Structures are given as C-alpha cells and as structure tokens.
Amino acid sequence: VQLQASGGGLVQDGGSLRLSCAASQMRVAIYHMGWYRQAPGKQRERVASINTGGTTTYTDSVKGRFIISRDNAENTVYLQMNSLESEDMAVYFCNTVPPKGHYWGQGTLVTVSS
User: Fold this and answer.
1) Of 84, 104, 94, 103, residue with least CA distance to 9
2) What is the radius of gyration, based on Cα positions, of the chain?
3) Whose C-alpha in 45, 58, 81, 101 is 20 to 30 A from the C-alpha of 67?
4) What angle do CA 5, 104, 61 make, to 5 degrees?
C-alpha cells in the first residue's frame, strides 16, 4: 500500500494550498481517512478526517480554514488549506483513521512565510 502526499510548497501568510493523497493498492472509499501533520519538535497530530459516509471532522485550529474531501473514482483524498498561518507549517501526511504504521509515506512539506 502506498499513500503518496503531494501539493505542499512555500506560500505566503494568508495563502492557500491544495494537498492530494493518491492511494495505491487500497481503496480510500472503504476507509476512514485522515490528514495528519508534524511540525518540528512537535508530535504528529490529525488535522482532518473523512469517514466512509463523507462525514468530516477537524481539529479546532483548522476549523473554517481547511476542507477535506475524497474522490473515490480517482482514489484520492484532498486537503484544501486556506488562510494559512505560520502555525500550519509542517510536513503533512495522509493515513487511515486510526493510522496504520506501515501506511506512512514521505509526506509533503508546507512552508508559510510571513
């Protein structure tokens, strides 16, 4: 199984990015999926999730700014990130909820400049 996160980059404070998580050898449609992030010196945290029914949840710090979605035909999970702040700088990963250790990929780096 591979979960390949992409779409990160350098963005100005207040800007937007759209992350993608392309899955192979698994179907995202049948899993509760999540986006996680890990900032330097901090523990990895889940920022958003979407269950098989399409219900979404968000950690408080990103509510109203991030949107998680899933395209079953493309077998991809997305994270639209708006109004980015310096506190959002981290490496972002996707995984199941709860996460499976062997599903962690390289992640994608999001850098926010002020």
Assistant:
1) 84
2) 13
3) 101
4) 65
Structure tokens at 103: 């599903």
| pLDDT tens, residue by residue, 45-103 | 999 999 999 999 999 999 999 999 999 999 999 999 999 999 999 999 999 999 999 99
- Other Cβ atoms within 10 Å of 70 Cβ, number: 21
Tokens linked to 46: 């889940």
Both structure tokens of 29: 């449609």
DSSP single-letter state for residue 83: S
Residue 14 burial (C-beta neighbours within 10 Å; 0-12, 13-18, 19+): exposed
pLDDT tens digits, 7-25: 999 999 999 999 999 999 9
Phi/psi at 30 (5° precision): -105, 5
Among candidates 95, 102, 112, which has minimal Cα distance to 36? 95
DSSP codes of every residue in 11-54: EETT--EEEEEEEESS-GGGS-EEEEEE-TTS--EEEEEE-TT-
